[in-house]
Amino acid sequence: MQIIYGHIVHDGKDIDEALLLPFRAPASYTREDVVELHVHGGSMSARSTLQAILQQGARPAEPGEFTRRAFLSGRIDLLQAEAVMDLIAAKSQRAAAAAVEQLEGHLSKSFDEIYDNLITVSADLEAQLDFDEDELPARTTEDLLLRLGLARKQLAALLSTWEEGHRLREGTLVVLAGRPNAGKSTLLNLLLGKDRAIVTPIAGTTRDSLEEEVILNGFPLRIVDTAGLRTADCQIEQEGIRRSRDLMQKAEIVIMLLDASRPLDPEDHELLATCPVENTLVLLNKTDLGQVVTAGHISYKHVVACSLLQTKGLEACKQALSEMLHLSTQTESHAVISERHRGMAQASIHAVKQTENILRQSGESSEMIAALALRDGIEQLGQITGRSYHDNLLEAIFSRFCVGK
Ligand SMILES: Nc1nc2c(ncn2[C@@H]2O[C@H](COP(=O)(O)OP(=O)(O)OP(=O)(O)O)[C@@H](O)[C@H]2O)c(=O)[nH]1
Ligand SMILES: [Mg+2]
Q1: How many CB atoms lie within 10 A of CB 40?
Q2: Which of 36, 175, 326, 388 could pair with 251 as two cysteines, CB 3.0-4.6 Å apart?
Q3: Whether residue 289 has its Cβ less than 6 Å from ligand 1
Q4: All structural domains of the chain
């Protein structure tokens, strides 16, 4: 590898001194000849250099064009190309580690193995079409079913990584809700480890919703503090409450804070009735003032008593959240599938299942129909790694990249 030192000169003007790094094909990101220019930081020098190059006939790269070219030249597959974007967008170290695993081709290897196995099943199945029933070895269909079943199970195992992938890539929306003064903003500040939201003893302090990101076990959580729920006269507060309710609908987890130092009143019960049992974590707060309400008073699965003022129960609250969201605590990283892969893996599983059913029925020309169903499953699988693709698929993937990647 060579680094060349020199000056960028355009129209007789010395624009900057620079370093030039030539990458000779195929030893470059895209496998083409590539040069990298390193100029001084600050926008003026870079902009003038870019203008000079564009005037010489170059054009700016489209979003994701470099990675797209790397894919089209066969240097990386689609899963690895997507991992580049995941790595850039990673919100936590765990998310970055999962992206690196994918970039290194671990996920590709798993999908490729299943793909290759299904291709051989397909070839064997199509070979059967040329034989008469009685010429075939008796075990053939049984053997095909065995191999199809195995591929289906391997796909299902990959599919099960989706939830973790979703939580790593998109983050999880957690909404803090409750009556005014329940301690929502206190909790947000504690989770963040800084004084982000205003906390006062005045009921109705928070009016606008406030979103912040917190990392729990390496998973990003989008925590939203909301306006306390009550019947309000003030128009600003009413709008805040409308937003709180809206956010509670969208939340994957609602943390409902109650003041446990006084008995629950009808308004508390009314509020609790709007929270589904499965995704609500009830915090019985202010136990330092004496705990009147206990888990036995409410019919919720996830209940934690705490005194946020004394930061008591905070760990138990995090633990409960982590369990509710199935956030794995295991430390070694592994690649996880995305929403796009999930749809295709599901379609592929469906096609394999159909193939198995048709083979089991062994009716007239069942091999032919089974072979067609399997071909469909293989096609879906091929789109995950990019062994088969169409332009729309590439467009959808690479248009989400930023320029220069
Ligand atoms: N004694 C006691 N006071 C608490 C506890 N948690 C919060 N507080 C106090 O309760 C008051 C209200 O707390 P906030 O965190 O502002 O409550 P909020 O739910 O955000 O209230 P609104 O924004 O008005 O909806 C503040 O004076 C807090 O210091 C607790 O565990 N024990
Ligand atoms: Mg508040």
Answers
A1: 12
A2: 175
A3: yes
A4: 4-58 (3.30.1360.120), 78-161+336-398 (1.20.120.430), 167-324 (3.40.50.300)
